[in-house]
Design a protein that fits this description.
The chain has helices spanning about 5-15, 20-40, 45-55, 55-65, 65-75, 90-105, 110-120, 125-150, 165-185, 190-195, 200-205. The chain is mostly helical. It is globular and about 55 Å long. The chain starts with a helix and ends in a 9-residue tail after the last helix. The model is unreliable at about 1-15 and about 205-213 (pLDDT under 50).
Length: about 210
């Protein structure tokens, strides 16, 4: 190999950089969740996360451009080993499981602490707002739409809108939005009482339900 080839190879290695160490990612994301639960949004700074994780602040900024991006990934960027709605047999079971799962997620201390700050940041971070819907809600929408189609909900003619997909999107909006607002505005005991009614309202519709006793 000539000296020119050696220089080009070294330049390429510098441009590619060292492989990303997943241990640093895990430590930072865990630290962010812990700090959110312990100290809240304002005190969960990049400096505090770096100190808790035992890593340098530059290592964080090489991975996430801002605290908002890091926190977003910490609370929304993971997937359970077994998605709780993946094997739902019908739309009713899917809705009940999804309500339970989403309400539990938004009830976690670190998520409740992060939501006000994230919601404010979404105004200037359209990429995260899009990711919340496509990455967090999107897979559920696809699963529910498939479940509705298996149940015969997709009888559209050529050129007609995909009713199953539209119904799935609307249902997911109700579940995600309702769960988020419920956890932000209500005390835990009130939230649990209302949460128990959400699946039945989504399944039957308010107009078709008998008056509450």
């Amino acid at each position: 190999m000539t000296s020119g080839e050696e220089t080009a190879e070294k330049d390429g290695e510098r441009r590619r950089g060292r492989p990303r160490n997943p241990a640093i990612d895990d430590a930072a994301l865990t630290a962010a969740r812990e700090l959110l639960a312990e100290t809240g949004w304002d005190q969960t700074t990049m400096v505090a996360i770096a100190e808790r994780a035992g890593v340098g602040k530059p290592a964080l900024y090489r991975r996430w451009p801002s605290k908002t991006h890091l926190v977003f990934e910490a609370i929304f960027g993971w997937v359970d080993d077994a998605t709780p709605v993946a094997d739902a047999a019908d739309p009713a079971e899917w809705i009940r499981r999804s309500c339970t799962y989403t309400l539990e997620l938004f009830g976690r201390p670190e998520v409740k602490a992060a939501l006000p700050g994230l919601l404010a940041a979404f105004r200037d971070r359209e990429d995260l707002l899009t990711a919340l819907w496509t990455d967090f809600g999107g897979p559920g929408v696809g699963m529910l739409a498939d479940t509705l189609r298996r149940g015969g909900a997709d009888d559209r003619g050529e050129g007609e809108p995909d009713a199953a997909a539209l119904d799935a999107q609307a249902t997911m909006l109700f579940i995600v939005g309702g769960s988020m607002v419920l956890r932000l505005l209500m005390a835990d005991d009130e939230a649990e009482t209302l949460a128990q009614r959400m699946p039945d309202i989504l399944l039957g519709g308010v107009a078709g339900r008998p008056p509450a006793r």
